[in-house]
Amino acid sequence: MPRHRCRLPLLAVLIGIGVGCTDAPPATAPPTTPPPAPLPPAEVNMSATGMVGGPLRFLSPDESRLFARGAGVFARLFEPGDGLGPLFNAEGCGACHEVPVLGGAGSNDPAEEGEDVELHGTEVHGATSCDNLSTVGGPVFQKEATEALQGIGIDHEEPPATAARANRTTPDVFGFGLLDAVPDAEILALADPNDRNGDGISGRPNRTADGRLGRFGRKAQVARLDEFNAEAFVQEMGITNPGFPVEQIPGGVPFPEGIDQTGEPEVPQEDLDAANGFVRFLAPPPPPRLDLVGLRGFMNFARIGCASCHVPALVTGPNPSRALRFRVVRAYTDLLLHDMGPELADICLAQAAPAEFRTEPLMGLRFATAFLHDGRAATIQQAITLHDGEARRARNRFLRLSPFDRAALLRFLHSL
Question: What is the pTM of this model?
Answer without folding.
Answer: 0.88
